[in-house]
Design a protein that fits this description.
mainly alpha
Length: about 300
């Protein structure tokens, strides 16, 4: 009876241990004041994107011919564009497209990198050679140039922009994960799993991946800001989100022709992109320090 009670309590202890480790990492991140502020700013942007219809003072696509290129005022805090549309409302709605492009692009790249990296690191041989040689070809081109080529070939639009941003970010994490898995291949827990006749997918994604994915998670948070910046760059070049859709990069592209007469059309979208990217970079740095074993006390 005593043994059964002890066995019944062991999962609770394991769960508490896992929760305490997560809380410990989270507290270590929050000790960094810059990371805390950055996390609050990121949460603010996410909430703005979710509740955009409730927060936007105007319809972002409503034309007002009586307020063409109106400077910032009480009625329009961020001014209006060349068609009389409220810039603040368009920035609020634009956060939906910009954030989803950045996060979805990073998530899809991470998932593809996990699959390819596990296959290359675990099987080796011809499988590894094919994946790595394809990665060498893709990584021989700069990421921005590759995104431009894909967008130009597939045409502008939301889905094609997402594909262009995703493809360029797959093989860098794939190579990193392959290296981590090669380090783990000789560990005893893998020999035990193979002795128990675990299936190869279970060994790769249940045993190897959780012990090798930490560097990829850090790159994931750092890559969101880069993906958003790349999406804005594609839209600025006319290869991403197309007008009249409200997106931060597209707004920069629309406002560049009015740089002298209405500089706020460039300033406000540029500031939003800079602030969000900066906060993501600061949070990623703090998370890297929190997960670093040398930083543990």
């Amino acid at each position: 009876m005593v043994k059964s009670q002890a066995n019944a309590g062991s999962p609770v202890k394991t769960r508490r241990r896992k929760e305490s480790q997560f809380v410990m990492i989270f507290r270590r991140v929050l000790k960094d004041r810059a990371a805390t502020i950055s996390l609050c700013v990121i949460a603010f942007f996410v909430l703005v994107a979710i509740f955009a219809p409730l927060l936007a003072p105007y319809d972002p696509y409503e034309l007002d011919k009586s307020a063409l290129l109106s400077p910032p005022s009480w009625a329009h805090p961020f001014g209006t564009d060349q068609l009389g549309r409220d810039v603040l409302s368009r920035l609020i709605y634009g956060s939906r497209y910009s954030l989803t492009l950045g996060m979805l692009g990073s998530v899809v790249s991470l998932v593809c990198a996990c699959i390819l990296g596990c296959l290359a690191g675990y099987f080796g041989g011809i499988v590894e050679s094919i994946i790595m040689r394809c990665g060498d070809v893709m990584m021989s081109l700069p990421g921005t140039l590759l995104s431009i080529i894909i967008s130009a070939a597939l045409g502008p639009g939301y889905f094609t922009t997402l594909v262009a941003l995703t493809v360029g970010g797959i093989f860098g994490p794939t190579r990193m994960l392959r290296g981590q898995i090669l380090r783990e291949r000789g560990q005893e827990y893998l020999e035990a799993a193979e002795a128990y006749h675990c299936s190869k997918p279970k060994i790769m994604f249940t045993h190897l991946l959780p012990n090798s994915i930490s560097p990829l998670l850090l790159g994931f948070f750092m890559g969101i800001s880069g993906t958003i910046t790349s999406a804005a760059g594609l839209s600025f070049l006319g290869l991403g989100i197309q007008p009249p859709m409200a997106e931060w990069g597209a707004m920069l592209s629309d406002g560049r022709n009015y740089l002298r007469t209405a500089p706020y059309l460039i300033v406000f979208p540029g500031l939003i992109i800079m602030i969000f990217s900066w906060c993501m970079a600061l949070f990623g740095d703090a998370l890297r320090d929190a997960l670093d074993p040398k930083m543990k006390t």
